[in-house]
Amino acid sequence: MTSTPHGARARARIEITAAIKEEARRRLAEQGAAELSLRAVARTLGMASSAIYRYFPSRDDLLTALIIDAYDSLGETAEAALKGSAGAAPGERWTAVCEAIRGWALAHPHEYALIYGSPVPGYAAPATTVPAASRVGFALIDVVRDAHRAGELDVPAVPADLEAEAARMAADFVPDLPPAVAPACVAVWAQLLGLIGFEVFGQFTRIVEERDAFFRHTVAGLARTVGLRPADAS
Q: What is the pTM of this model?
C-alpha cells in the first residue's frame, strides 16, 4: 500500500517533534531548564529558527510538552508497579510503588528535577499538565483505597482544627475514602517526593550510606501514616 502525502507528513511531524524533545532533554541535562532555548535546539538539529516554531510556538510550549512526558513516564512506571503487585499485602504494594517511583527518579534525574525541582523562572505550568501530574499520586491512593475496601486500613486521626480541610480535600480527590485519610495522603506524598529528591540531588552524600534499606524503612513509616498495616500484621 502506498503512503499518502498526508500520512507521510504526519509521520515526519511525529519524528521531528520527537527529535526536538530529545535534543531539549539533552540540553536540560547539560544546562538546566532555565537555559532552554528553541533557537539553540533548532540550530543543533540543523533547522531554520523559524521552522521550529511550527512545532512549538514558544519555549514554554516545549517545556510543557517535556513536563507532561516526564509525568506520564513516571505515572506509567508507578501504575505498572501497582498492577504488578496485585494480590500482595497493602504494605508490600505501597513499597513496590514507592520503589518504582524512586527507581525512575534515579534513572531520570534531570526530568525529576524538571517536575519536582526548583521552578523555572518565568514559566507557569498550565492546567494541561494536571492529568499527567496526578497519575503517580493516584497510584499511591489506589493502594490505600484497595486496603480500605478490604477492611485493612486503620484510618488515621485528624485534629479538630483540620477536620474541615480534611473534608474539603477528600471531596476534591478521594470522595470514597474517610476524610481523615486525605491530609495523610497529601502529607506522605510530599514527604516521599522530598525523600527521593534528597537522594537525587545529592543531599544524602556522607549522611546515608545504606540507601536501599533506609528508603524501605522510611516508606514503611509513611505507609503507617496513611493507615496501612505492616505486611505481617494480623
A: 0.91
